[in-house]
Each structure stands twice: as structure tokens, then as C-alpha cells.
Design goal:
This protein is 23% helix and 30% strand. By secondary structure, it is an alpha+beta fold. The chain starts with a strand and ends with a strand. The structure holds pyridoxal-5'-phosphate.
Length: 316
Amino acid sequence: MFVANGSWEDGWSEGRMVDFQPLNLSPAACVLNYGQGLFEGMKARRTPDGKITLFRPEMNARRAAEGARRLVMPEVSESMFIKAVKKVAEENKRWVPPHGKGELYLRPILFGSSARLGVSPAEEYMFVVFAVPVGPYFKGGMTPISLRVSQNHHRAAPGGSGGVKAIGNYAPGMMPSKRAKSEGYSEIIYLDAVEHNYVEEVGAANFFCVKDGIVYTPELTGTILPGITRLSIIELARSMGLTVVEEKVSIDFALSCDEAFCAGTAAVISPIGSIQHGEIEEDFGGVGDTTLALYERLTGIMGGALEDSFNWTVEV
Ligand SMILES: *Cc1c(COP(=O)(O)O)cnc(C)c1O
């Protein structure tokens, strides 16, 4: 794993590669007490000809910098971030599964590491990147998931931290998500916290739906995490001649759509088979044509099986 130390006073150290190991932290570390931390998630993949690539790592670097500003942490520069994730992928390359058999998931984390008893930013910080190999998300074809709209919980409110990958955004979602899973659903859909009417996200993935050939996704208003998969789907769909509309998507409109899917680094695209909302149980049928076309194009570019005319992939 990669470890760098930083402070407001001295900036960031160059960082070093060390064996995967526990970190040494004070019980009064700012991250443990006040959640001053963020994470990123990305994948290193093996192309059919054996090269190892990352997908748009500069976007993860920029999002982490945005999060650092929101949480009053020293930013890791784009070049330092990219150097670190490349190094971790490179030194763990024996753990990158063969093409099509999975990926090496990279997890950069940035947090306030020094002791702080008052609620204020830490003086010292750590930037760590570790890695874990993951198997293919869909084994033997895409499987549509069943979702339930959360009636009592919201993920983020205007003015909060929903637009960055702040660690504190995630534990509160575990209870509603766990409950939905125990009742047979794969995940929950969050509606907006103000009107409880507009779709925001699916657990920790972005939402899309398709109606009469037009692709819709909730616009970024600060409460929705700007997913890199989301952005790439929008750009890819437009390049395929599809119309993509970013606007508020009401739950009633979403339920009236022909197809729905969610998007994130883990599964890339997960088709939504059904959505339960109050008394309604809307069935979308199998995997829609637009969902499948976007999935095949995007995973083809990511994995190096299709030509990357966008220059999204970066060789390690
Ligand atoms: C990480 C994340 C996503 C997906 O972002 P990607 O960059 O596509 O992986 C969507 N929603 C939330 C809440 C997230 O944390």
C-alpha cells in the first residue's frame, strides 16, 4: 500500500510503498472522533493484450480534492494522486485478475490523523492507497436487481456533504439498507430530503432511467455524488446519438419508465428489475436494450476490448 503523511504546516511528504499493515492512530485522531475523512474507489484492469489500465483516474483525483476542500483537509495534488494509484496497481500487478475475470479494486483514503479533542480540523493527515482483487460483478450475464424506495430515511440534505465521498455519509445508510436486504431487496432508492419526491441515488450508486429512447438521470444539485461512471455514461450515450436529460427525476416519472439502471464503479451498470414504492410494485421486466448497449460499450472500453476513442483509459 501507499502511505503519505501531510500537515497544514509542511504539506505532503513524497509518500512510500509499504506492506499492507495496520495504521498507528491516536484514539483521539480527528477521523475517529469527527469523521474527518474521505475515500475514493477505482479499478485497475487487465486488457486482452495483458496491459494494466486505470479508468479516468484524474476524475477521482479531482473529486478527492473537492472533498478535501469541503472537509478542510490539505488537498492531494492530481499528479501525486495519480502517481500513488499507479504505483499501487503496478506493485500489486500479480493481483490484477486476467482480462474478464475481475479487477484490482483500489481504495484511496484521506483523513485527519492527529489528535483533536475540540471539533476542528486536524493538524496532520494521511493519504493511503490500498488494493484488493475483486471477481466479476455479474457471473454469467447481468441480473436485474429489485429495489425499494426508502420512506423514512434520506441520504443527504441541501448544504450537507452528499456531493463528496465523505466517510460520514455512509454508515447512516447501513441500517435502512440492511433492513431492505433482510426483506429481500438488493438496495434502497433514496428520494430527496426536502420534498421526498425526486430520486437521488440507489445506495451508493447513481440512478438512470430510459423512456421512449431518452435517457434521464437526476441532475447534480449538491446532494448527489458526482459519479465517474455516471459522467461516462452521459458522455457515451450522447456519442451513441442518444438524448440524455439531466433534471429532477420524480419517483412517479421513474416508475413510468421503460428501463432503469444504476451506475457506479463496483458493477459499472446494474439493471433495475423492479422498484417498490409504498403500495406500488413496478416491474421493468428483463434487461432493457439501452441498458445493455451502454453496459457493453462502457465495459468494452474499460476493459480494453473496444477502442477507447475518448482516451479514458490510462496505462499503468
Ligand atoms: C462512489 C459513489 C457513486 C459512484 O461513483 P463512481 O465514481 O461512478 O464509482 C455514487 N453514489 C455514491 C453515494 C457514491 O459514494
